[in-house]
Amino acid sequence: MRDSTRSIVIFGVASLAAVGAGCVAMAGSGLAPSSWMRSVVAWMVGGGLAAVLARYAEPRSASTGAVIAGTAALIATLFNAGIDGVHRWVDIGPLHINVAALFLPALIVGLAAIGVARPIGVVVTVVTATVLLAQPDASQLMAFAVAVSILLVRSGVTPYLRVFAILVAVLFAVSGWMRPDPLTPVAEVEQIFTMCVAVSPFLALLAGLALAAAALVPLSVSSPVSHHGPDGAVALSAYFVAVSIAPFFGSFPVPLVGLGMSFPIGWWLGMGLLLVIARHPK
Questions:
Q1: Is the pLDDT assigned to residue 6 strictly greater than 70?
Q2: Is 277 helix (H, G, I), strand (E, B) or coil?
Q3: Nearest CA among 167, 49, 65, 171 for reference residue 124
Q4: I want to staple 196 with a disulfide (CB 3.0 to 4.6 A). Which of 5, 25, 252, 274 is the partner?
Q5: Tell me, what's the pLDDT at 280?
Q6: 278 pLDDT above the threshold of 90
Q7: For residue 118, which of 75, 156, 159, 73 has the smallest C-alpha distance?
Q8: What DSSP line would sit under 167-178, residue for residue?
Q9: Cα 33 to chain center, whole Å?
């Protein structure tokens, strides 16, 4: 319990520092507070949801719910009006939700809990990867493929089946990178580190370190029974790292630091579900 509390506090501080650095950069670049304050509000909402989840949720039902809700929401993006043929969002009133950013962290943790090699896990994995490829979203697809590959390595499937499944995951990831992305980058979303450097190199360094720290925090979550983290901890951290470095190789949203409400809430939900599973091991 004490280790979990320490982990969530560190995550909260690091993620807030990353969000705050991005907000300072946006404010220094002339963006109105009504824009960048949304990231702060999202961080607070996500933290509140994670606290409720960690305190009251039951592992099996929460994991199943995360997997079902995440898969359904991802499928819904294909029926929502896209932008230049890209379908990554669902609009709910004034909210423009990046579904993968919001749901994938908890979906990955839930997938680890129910078993990625079980029939339901295989179906969810294939459907999720297929939707991410169809959207298309190369950064989220790559990060998901990395997380699933780690779960497969740590699963009990035979070596031959494990290699085959990982090769399929790699094929999906490569296919995602090969699909054209017609969207024009938005400075405060995809190029936020450039904005940070323009305001202050120190601010850019702070943003990078805070983002890295937040991404690695799941590795510190341990079980009171086994004294090591659940499989979802490693997979979640791998997802965080992969989606964080993707913007350095293409025009992809920068999580936490960049403008947007989906990433702060999504990362918090992933951490909240991870704590539920760590505190109630099988």
A1: yes
A2: helix
A3: 65
A4: 25
A5: 72
A6: no
A7: 156
A8: HHHHHHHHHHHH
A9: 25
